[in-house]
Amino acid sequence: MKALVTGGAGFLGSHLCDMLLAKGYEVICVDNLITGTEDNLAHIETDKFSFINHNITKPLFLKDRIDFLFHLASPASPIDYQGLPIQTLKVGALGTHNMLGFAMEHDARFLLASTSEIYGDPFVNPQNEEYWGNVNPIGPRGVYDEAKRFAEAITMAYHRYHGLDTRIVRIFNTYGPRMRLNDGRVVPNFIGQALRGEDLTIYGDGSQTRSFCYVSDEIEGIYRLMMSDYSMPVNIGNPEEHTILEFAQLILKLTGSDSKIAFKSLPVDDPKQRRPDITKARNILGWEPKVILENGLEETIKYFKNILF
Ligand code: UDP
């Protein structure tokens, strides 16, 4: 079986490539390396793996027959997508269109990596898949949220109109080794700051919530969804919800750092609460997260320590 992973040099994409190779798939990774890096793939030695440097906003033609297409390519951290707003909209729209066409051509099953951001700043907590969301289309986060909402819409259109076999995973905050130290997200920021003895920067008063899923759990959920026969969106994330202030205190405890906390202004449209309802994932995929937050963070801290020192 052959799988193609767009965004395969990124944080989640590279872990997905590892898992697919371990399961015996031949894997083709497509990435233009604007936020991903070949360092994430440097450990792969098998000739069952190949890398193509390509920007999928341009069509991709391959002779190899592909069975499964995992479409993960996109800038994904708020700093990345706000710094690359046009590229983010283009990869969500043109890139997804091109990859759907590619899947049609190859008769491949197609999985779209969507996001909890499609729920925006939600009025409903936890968020289930039936909730339509509360997104500001013209705010700074809108470039990512609307790109992914369009990507979901065109994926469902290909499913309904062309009969393409499609899956949509809504990925909630995920963390683990291979996150970029400078990607601006809360996990690398807090761990990097704690390890360097700098103040931990809490945006706002820290009462906003997030729910953090360890990368191995997330990848297992994505794979199970691809292998299922369910074509409507499914949330994959950890339902354990924490305030950002609690999260900062936990990082200080686990790193043993005596860093202080500094309160900074809250970014525009920063969601106040986020927690996945994973009833569907439990019932349809038999999936739920296994890694507890402290253990996942220990692994992540180890990874960042290696990079920093
Ligand atoms: N955040 C923070 N300090 C930081 C980075 C992020 O307080 O140094 C907050 C951010 O405002 C948000 C939460 O942490 O409320 C998660 O941010 P992240 O960028 O990791 O992901 P998001 O869930 O917002 O996409």
**Number of separate domains:** 2
Order of helices and strands: EHEEEHHEHEEHEEEHEEHEHH
Largest sheet: 7 strands, parallel
Q: Any guess at the CATH architecture of the largest domain?
A: 3-Layer(aba) Sandwich
**In angstroms, what separates the terminal alpha carbons?**
40 Å
Q: Give the % helix.
A: 25-40%
Biggest sheet, strands in spatial order? Answer: 3-2-1-4-5-6-11
Q: What is the CATH fold-level name of the largest domain?
A: Rossmann fold
Give a written overview of the molecule.
The chain is of the alpha/beta class and 309 residues long. The protein has two domains: 216 residues, Rossmann fold; 72 residues, UDP-galactose 4-epimerase, domain 1 (Alpha-Beta Complex), CATH 3.90.25. Helices cover 39% and strands 17% of the residues. The protein is built from nine helices and 13 strands. It has a seven-stranded parallel beta sheet, with helices on both faces. Strand 1, helix 1 and strand 2 form a beta-alpha-beta unit. The protein is globular and about 55 Å long. 45% of the residues are buried. The chain binds uridine-5'-diphosphate. Uridine-5'-diphosphate binds next to helix 5 and strand 8.
List keywords for this structure.
binds uridine-5'-diphosphate, 309 residues, alpha/beta, Rossmann fold, UDP-galactose 4-epimerase, domain 1, globular, two-stranded parallel sheet, single chain, 2 domains
SSE layout and pairing:
Elements: E1 2-6, H1 11-22, E2 26-31, E3 49-53, E4 68-71, H2 78-83, H3 85-106, E5 109-115, H4 142-162, E6 166-171, E7 174-175, H5 186-196, E8 200-203, E9 209-211, E10 213-214, H6 215-227, E11 234-236, E12 241-243, H7 244-255, E13 261-264, H8 279-285, H9 293-308
Parallel strand pairs: 1-2, 1-4, 2-3, 4-5, 5-6, 6-11, 7-10, 8-13
Antiparallel strand pairs: 9-12
Helix pairs in contact: 1-6, 3-4, 5-7, 5-9, 7-9
This protein binds uridine-5'-diphosphate (UDP).
